[in-house]
């Protein structure tokens, strides 16, 4: 086993208590540390080292978890880290995963096995109602104009992510995190772009996403989740508000309002 594989941390994140923390039996067989970032002071685990962090955006647990996923590896002090979504159960020790998949690359992550393109992922997110449609469509609009080739790429599946802690990786993660906070919370819409423009070397992992020789993905019927916490924060952009906002932003309204304001000033001055 190489030195990098022995200097290894596996981590996950759970914010907002939208699902139950999944234990990792392989942690008992591995020299790697298993760390879970959370905002829940009552969370306990037999296989995870629970690390309490402040939830700075408490009304959006999804983005808090994404932030930990994308940037949390910098807090671990390890040369190599493996992120796994809470629904992933490892079937082999993480040292073997690093040796098999990372190679000389900066990052290794699985290819999405049931999406033909990033553009398909946009369509699926819209159809499933995972995020606000206007936010998803805005992101696709800018992506199509900045790097249209990325839309044709096969998307990555970000439930498993192996990284080296390097400056190039840090730049890619900063771009990725910025996009998740600026546009859709669905990080698979932006990871291809972040990796593409940063120039990091990527090792694609060819795995069946649902279950492979190294992992099992727990479906919603096995691990229920509170969708209202995961996908929504209570605010809805109602049709009436949308129409009103469109009205007050229109050129006609601005022109009429400006004339009324000038008339008011002229009358006050006379």
UniProtKB/TrEMBL annotation:
This is Uncharacterized protein DUF616. It comes from Microbacterium telephonicum. It holds the Pfam family TOD1_MUCI70. Residues 46-130 form the TOD1/MUCI70 glycosyltransferase-like domain. The lineage of its organism: Bacteria, Bacillati, Actinomycetota, Actinomycetes, Micrococcales.
């Amino acid at each position: 086993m190489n030195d990098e594989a022995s200097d290894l941390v596996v981590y996950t994140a759970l914010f907002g208590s939208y699902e139950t923390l999944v234990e990792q039996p392989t942690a008992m067989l591995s020299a790697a540390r298993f760390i879970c970032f959370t905002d829940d002071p009552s969370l306990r685990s037999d296989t995870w080292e629970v690390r309490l962090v402040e939830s700075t955006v408490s009304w959006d647990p999804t983005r808090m978890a994404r932030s930990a996923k994308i940037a949390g590896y910098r807090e671990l002090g390890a040369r190599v880290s493996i992120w796994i979504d809470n629904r992933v159960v490892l079937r082999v020790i993480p040292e073997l995963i690093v040796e098999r998949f990372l190679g000389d690359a900066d990052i290794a992550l699985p290819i999405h096995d049931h999406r033909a393109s990033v553009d398909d992922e946009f369509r699926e997110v819209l159809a499933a109602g995972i995020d606000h449609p206007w936010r998803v469509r805005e992101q696709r609009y800018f992506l199509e104009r900045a790097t249209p080739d990325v839309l044709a790429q096969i998307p990555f599946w970000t439930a498993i992510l192996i990284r080296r802690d390097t400056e190039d990786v840090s730049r890619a993660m900063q771009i990725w995190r910025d996009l998740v906070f600026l546009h859709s919370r669905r990080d698979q819409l932006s990871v291809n772009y972040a990796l593409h423009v940063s120039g990091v070397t990527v090792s694609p992992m060819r795995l069946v996403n649902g279950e492979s020789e190294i992992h099992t993905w727990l479906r919603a019927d096995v691990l229920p989740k509170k969708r209202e916490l995961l996908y929504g924060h209570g605010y809805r952009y109602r049709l009436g508000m949308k129409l009103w906002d469109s009205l007050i932003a229109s050129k006609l309204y601005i022109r009429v309002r400006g004339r009324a304001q000038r008339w008011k000033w002229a009358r006050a001055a006379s």
